[in-house]
Amino acid sequence: MKLVNHKYDGEISPVYFSLAMKRSYNVFIIYFGIFILCMAAFGYPANCIPVFFWLIGTLVARYGIDHLWVRWNFLFYVIISAGWISYFIYFYGWNCGGTNFIMPLMLMSMFSVYDTFFTKITFTVFLFLLRMALFFHCQTYPVIYPLSTGQMLILQVVNTILSFVIMGVICITFSTNLQKAEKHLLLYNMELRQQAGTDPLTGLYNRRRMEEILDNHIAANPNEIFCIAIGDIDFFKSVNDTYGHDCGDLVLQELSALFKDKTMGKGHVCRWGGEEFLFFFPYVNLDQSSTLINDIKMSVSYHPIVYKDTALHITMTFGVEEYDYSSDLSALIKQADEKLYYGKTHGRNTVIF
Fold it and tell me: Is residue 224 part of a domain?
């Protein structure tokens, strides 16, 4: 959510709140212009003079949005709205629709992020009492400027339309902001989830994410075959000791890119830890997965990694295990790891299945 720190503002003012007020003021400016035309058409040109003051006040308040504290802006909005409602009903009566503007004022107060729940309820009570006071006043005292039935109907239509326009502007502004905030939150959560499941060096899944994938697959497909393989880079420690950890990182990154390419559409791969990688091939048996892993092993050995004009020829050893429909995930991984250990102690650069 974008925030604006106004030059003269001791508080942080959200753009959407200022935008809602600006749009509301724009509608008020149009409304006062229409009202002046109505008074002139009704034959009451003198009644236009007070409305000019409301129009000027609205223009000043709109200008002040970018120059005053946000609470002052809201206070001016309340003064203009509540003041106009009181003025209109006092002079033109109850039947001209002036009370319609109470609802936009309530909406603006409810969407205010600066006020507590108690303050909002108190303001709602204030609006209710204002409405009741104006109602009983109209029942007790005659209007100052009585209008004909046709004139009251015109004002009723104008007030109804413009008050609904203001409510629509406020709701659209705030709902759009909420939708954007929700979308940003969703994308942020997705990004966090991706980061939590990704190895930062290689960009592959990390161990935690791969375990989730395997657990979910077994839970959803308990009777479907699959295979896993654990691969370890041969003599990786000597690479780090001879050329440095930057070279070791480069080896991990280039091999990871190779693994991504080789497993795309066939399975998943993660950095299991250090120089170990775990491969997951769903819906394939031991022979099929061994063929896939042998292809990866050959690709690794034929893929020279150049570091500072030095071409490194890397080999890997793999242990492959097939799901037997009964062993749990830890047991399956342990069996693959034992095969890997056997390959590491019997010549390396091999696939044990």
Answer: yes
Domain that includes residue 236, residue range: 207-352
Domain shared by 215 and 333, yes or no: yes
pLDDT per position as a tens digit, 103-160: 999 988 887 756 678 888 999 999 999 999 999 999 999 999 999 999 999 999 999 9
Phi, psi for 3 (deg, rounded to 5): -120, 150
CA atoms within 13 A on the CB side of 138: 22
Catalytic annotation, pick one of 254, 275, 321, 322: 275
Is the CB of residue 11 less than 8 Å from the CB of residue 70?
Answer: yes
Shared domain for 259 and 335, answered yes or no, is yes
Q: Is residue 275 flagged as an active site residue?
A: yes
User: In this structure, is residue 201 part of a structural domain?
Assistant: no
Provide the domain count of the chain: 2
Residues 79 and 293: their CA atoms lie apart, in Å, by 75
- 186 and 215 together in one domain: no
What digits encode the pLDDT tens for the residues 307-334? Answer: 998 999 999 999 999 998 888 899 999 9
Residues 6+ apart with CB under 8 A from 30: 162
Contacts 24+ apart (CB under 8 A), 191-200: 199/270, 199/271
Of 139, 158, 192, which residue is a domain's last?
192
From residue 349, alpha-carbon distances to 239, 242, 262, 314, 342 in Å are 16, 20, 18, 9, 12
- Length of the chain equals 353
Task: Tell me if 199 is assigned to some domain.
Answer: no
Q: What is the pLDDT of residues 262-317, one digit of tens each?
A: 999 999 999 999 999 999 999 999 999 999 999 999 999 999 999 998 999 999 99
